[in-house]
Amino acid sequence: MSQAEKIDVSGDGGVLKEILREGRGTERPIIGCTVFLHYTGKLLDGTVFDTTIGRYPFEFDLGKDQVIKAFDVAVVTMKVTEKCLLTCAPEYAYGATGSPPIIAPNTTLLFELEMLGWKGEDISPNGDESIERFILERSDRKRSPVAGALVKVNLIGKYKGKTFEQRDVEFEFGEGCDCGVIEGVEIALEKMSVGETSKLKIRSKYAFGNKGNEDFNIPPNSKVEYIVKLIDCAKGIEEWKLTEQEKLEHAALYKIKGTKYFSKQSYVLALKMYKKCADFISDVDNDESKKLKIAANSNIALCYQKTNDHFEGKQACIEALKLDPLNIKALYRRGQCNLATNEFTEALEDFRKVMELEPTNKAAMNQIKICKQRIKEENDKEKQIYANMFKKLSAADKEPTPSTEPDVLTKCGEWTDEDAKREVDLAFERDNNIVMI
Amino acid sequence: MEHLLEQPQLAGDVPAQQQYAKNLVELVKQLITEKEYDGVALLFTNEAEAPRNRSCLETVGMELYHEFCEPNLTAEVHEAQLPLYNCAEELLYLIASYAPMEELLLELLEMIEDQKSEFVYSSSLRALQAVLLRMGDKKPRALEWSLNSIHTRIESLPLPNFLEEGYDEKQEALLEQNNQIEKLLMHYITLNLFYEPLLKDILSSQSTSGPAFFDKSINRRNVLCCFLIQMLGKPLALLDLSADGRKTNTYTIQCARKLTESAVNCLDNPLRLLFVGEQRIRWTRRLDTNKGVHEMSSKNIFLIEDKLPLESLSIFFYMIFVEGICLNSVPKVYAPLYIFEMSLYYTNELLAHDEAALHYRALQLTKCLLDKLNHEKIAAISLELDVHKNFCNSLCNIVGYSSHNKLRQIGVKLLRQYILQFDDEGKYLVLKNLLRTVPHHGISGYLAIIYKDVVANALVSTSTNLPTSFSGQDFRTIFLRHICHLPHGAKTDLIEHADKVISSLNALRFFAIKDLQNRTGFWDIVPEIEQQFTDPLRKGLDISVAHYKAELLRVENGLDAETEAEDRKNLEILDLNIANASKESGQMDLEITRQRKTEILRQNLCTFDLMRSLLGRTVECFENSNRMSKSCAA
């Protein structure tokens, strides 16, 4: 074959490609794709030093410096089923080092390639292709966003080919949803390098879910596409380098953030911030950190209450109470969580302790009444069950059953269910306003 | 004695079949009672009867298992009545080959986990193998449970404490002589016999042809592969895994080699899993139960920590690269730098463990891959990856604080090799950041010398301008902030900082002599060096020498009687003298203390002398140069 039929794919004559069999279609893989192909590497004298023939095809991520440079520059030019022969100068193969003992330093090599296919990079947490990435513009930088770092991105959101949003946005990584950045984009950003632009195909569960987005006119359960450029990202806070005082300062900042999100009713983000606050000072042991930890855990409990996860809420209260067994807010909230999870006796104990510590706490007083009412109801229910059981047993014995008349006096002066529920809601709201830290 | 079963009249006669099976159970019972164990075997091997009897196992197999196998497959029976044990073992194998699989599988798993005897372990694995082979590709989960049970058993085997604490080379050579280790290895060898036919079956049932990506889902091949790699982790990883031509510990390497080779057979490309470390450490998975994302939910089995622990995977790569097992299967087209950077995640994983054996493997893995980089430089931009920072910190911890001399020695060489592998800017950044963060003064001194060496090299090899990292502002920053730096000025504890101070003085003297043309910009910062380093150092040395001399005098003249009395009191409190409570022995202890005190004080005074002499010579160089420049100006 003449020199003219060889294509210079590296632009400097370092990698020459000779097509042995034309590929199908017009599409070619782009950077970031996972490609799979067969290859045979030969020395100029024809000695084969490596081949995948008879084995599984070779897979690699294109354009990420995983393989010798010749592969990265040549494979992007190949179509599916294409077969080609590459002549690679040493600087695109094994360079001055070679690959002893087979490949001597500064050796020109031949590679026969057969492209079998490619797919976008699957970066979904479950590996179920719910987020696919295609790199449009790669970057030589290696820095990627880490939690807490300020990131600056350009977003172009598309649904069925139509752009529904286009904007530059700056946010602290991990808090994107506060600026309307969908989770799929945040997950992808974590894997992007500064300067990189990628196209993302995101399924609904990491986009707008089963609610869709009215403002953008996106129906429920829709797959969307984003083109994201990571313009810049700061370095994250390197926790291990911080002094105790710095850790305390950062923890306090996270607490403020948590309160900000709480007041915006972004409970999930608020929870995240309070947790970070507690994490930051987990190994700091002084009075100030203790106060912060108690406050953070108490507020974590509140967030869980707001998201109806009373079990986790209770755990957070327990954490706070480990540090301060007489903390009124934590006791009160644990009582509420116990009440919500039908642990009435435990709830009663908690509210009683609150009353002991603060005899004028009306909210706790009300809660005690509610607890008692619930315990009573529970006992009545049990009585009823046992009564029914005995009834059945006695019916089996064919004996007449004594009539169970309701004891009117037991209900006297107590609240109905509706009263109780109203009181709980009122007490909860009142309490949250009072005790919000 | 002949034992014949009454044949049912019709093949399709179900009650007759059942009766026949019942009779079979009775017959086996009778034969075992009469100790006619060969007769039992004949029932299932005799050409005339075997097919029919074997088919009966489908209905009465489990009954036979509970009646004869379960009670007889014990260590006690093995010891007291070996023929009976063998008979039960054979019967179990037959049941495993013909009885309902699921039910027996659960029984076998229980047996593997509960029975402590290695004979029972071996018998149950043989039967388990038969069951799993029968199951084929259909039930990867069954294989997963089985392998979990085996892993649980092996993990719970008792091991000698010294494996965790670390051992020296002589102890290492004799590891296999230890009974507990011997038993562990027997388990591994039996395991090898167990999985080999399975592996063969799995590999033969799949084809490599056809354009398809490598399947990473939970299938039999991947389940077995994860298990094989997992078995390379602890406890095997704590033994001697070196595959050199030595005469001891041959079983260990044999087991490790088999496991590695088999895992490579499953993967085809051993580096297929190289990405896992980065994937797990750099990008933590966002778990979210609402979205069905939890620890075990990944469709890629290799990303599940439980299935493929990083520690074991690190040992797998150690076996490939350092011991060279299956190295030929590694595709040659991988970029060495990519392999090196990915391997750092595994090195860090091993260094994060407590066991010295794992630290040793970590250092060897990194050294081996650094050697492969040869002339290729690591770009400074790579330092944006946290993995480098974490590696530096872990390595410095080993170099500074490991209780194993060998590790500290290898570590210190590796630190130098690693730093020198970077491009100029990278070298500077690593050194600067390490000097800033490493608290160990010995290492700081060593780093200062490395910086001096790389600049010295640049001075020789570059005739034009020096790289910016070795001159001007960068040179000034590293020298003033980190090398010539006394944290508390003249009051700095010079004994604690001795190594660092001596190294710094050496570096200063070197530049004062070798960089007369001021190519580094050294002479521009000399006034600042004098002000913040040499002057306070001189003052500090004067104070320290005076203090130590006075102290020496006090000790030598026995003027520290008060302290002595206090020491004696402490000794009494500690009840150290109970055994030989003579006055003499107590005094002798204190005499030794005094002698030792004198020794230490003298050693320290020697160190001050050395510093003084170095400081004197350095300052002399500064002054000479000043004189020269003045005379030139005149």
TrEMBL record, chain A:
* Residue stretches of each TPR repeat: 328-361
The UniProt catalytic activity note for this protein reads:
[protein]-peptidylproline (omega=180) = [protein]-peptidylproline (omega=0)
Q: What is its EC number?
A: 5.2.1.8
Which Pfam families does the record associate with it?
FKBP_C, TPR_1
> Do the record's keywords include Isomerase?
yes
Q: Which GO terms describe its molecular function?
A: peptidyl-prolyl cis-trans isomerase activity
Q: Which residues form a coiled coil?
A: none
PROSITE patterns named in the record: FKBP_PPIASE, TPR, TPR_REGION
- Key words of the record: Isomerase, Repeat, Rotamase, TPR repeat
Q: Which residues form the PPIase FKBP-type domain?
A: 32-119, 148-234
Q: What is this protein called?
A: peptidylprolyl isomerase
According to its UniProt entry, this protein's organism is Ceratitis capitata (Mediterranean fruit fly)
TrEMBL record, chain B:
Tell me the domain of life. Answer: Eukaryota
Its name, as the record gives it, is: Glomulin
The record's annotation in Pfam families points to: Kinetochor_Ybp2
* Originating species: Ceratitis capitata
Question: Could you give a GO molecular-function term held by this entry?
Answer: ubiquitin-protein transferase inhibitor activity
GO cellular component labels: cytoplasm
Output the InterPro entries linked to this UniProt entry: ARM-type_fold, Glomulin/ALF4, YAP-bd/ALF4/Glomulin
